[in-house]
Design a protein that fits this description.
The complex is a heterodimer. Chain A is α/β, with parallel strands linked by helices. Chain A has seven helices and four strands, in the order αβαβαααβααβ. The chains are: A alpha/beta, B alpha+beta.
């Protein structure tokens, strides 16, 4: 029944050889895959995927500025508008986004936080912010949205948010994509070089 | 004629802020022919580094940057 030590050595050597070959094959396959992926990345344009989740005037700027600039840098850009971020692509929202002074310690004109809660303060702060934007020749949100569409930035409304907030397709501005779910955005983001959440 | 090239088109971005100078540059150069030179004038101090990044990213050659107080002038050759 017992094996001689020679036989044991033989079995061990064969097993080790088989394992090593198997592992080597795996490594080669991984390497080849990595090289192919790197090549594919080099040939396709760079891509940026952004989530816009907030619906205030100030929060609408970063996604639109970054997406339009990305397009100017020959990148592909896509923005997923979800939760309050959907306001940015609503007809009633795009031109009427508000700047909310409450709980914002970085206000350009410092004021006691409590004042921000007074009726009319949001309207006043928004008005002042819009004036500054105009004076400093900074693009307005509708202007940036126009540029984004012109540059072919993909604008995805979040289907779930639309259902939740009872928003109809007709309430969205022209030029947006069909509403999509998280999976569609993630699929796009998974092949992106830059992903941002605003 | 400046530095061995002729300017084919001038784009005035004075007074405009980020990201408009870069976006307007891109839109203008798209309408130009290969090898033509665009002169872009900006007052946004950020455009100094942004135009270098834009050139690096798009492959359009930034031939020259001139800086006077508050005014930045860029010469870009359409390279593709």
């Amino acid at each position: 029944m017992g094996l001689t030590s020679q036989e044991i050595d033989h079995v061990v050597a064969a097993t080790v050889k088989e394992l090593a070959e198997h592992r080597l094959e795996e490594l080669v396959r991984e390497q080849v895959k990595a090289v192919l992926e790197a090549e594919a990345r080099k040939t396709r344009p760079k891509r940026i995927a952004i989530v816009a989740s907030k619906g205030t005037l100030d929060a609408a700027y970063p996604p639109l500025i970054l997406a339009t600039t990305a397009a100017a840098l020959d990148m592909e850009a896509g923005i997923f508008f979800t939760f309050f971020g959907l306001e940015i692509v609503k007809k009633s929202g795009l031109e009427n986004l508000k700047f909310v002074p409450i709980a914002n310690p970085a206000m350009p004109m410092p004021m006691p936080n409590l004042l921000g809660a007074l009726p009319g303060m949001t309207g006043l702060a928004t008005l002042m912010m819009k004036q500054t934007i105009k004076q400093k020749h900074i693009a307005s949100i509708p202007e940036l949205m126009g540029l984004a569409k012109e540059c072919g930035v993909k604008l995805w409304p979040c289907q779930m948010t639309m259902d939740m907030m009872n928003i109809k397709r007709g309430e969205l501005i022209d030029g947006v994509q069909e509403p999509v779910g998280a999976a569609t955005f993630l699929e796009y983001a998974s092949s992106s070089d830059i992903t941002l959440f605003v | 004629m400046a530095g061995g090239y002729t300017v084919d088109q001038v784009l005035d971005c004075k007074g405009l802020n980020c990201p408009l100078p870069v976006i307007k540059t891109k839109k203008t150069i798209e309408q130009m022919a290969l090898g033509q030179v665009l002169q872009m004038i900006a007052t946004d101090p950020g455009s100094k580094s942004d135009m270098v990044a834009w050139s690096k990213s798009t492959g359009h050659e930034l031939l020259e940057t001139r800086e006077e107080p508050g005014v930045y002038t860029f010469f870009v050759r359409k390279s593709k």
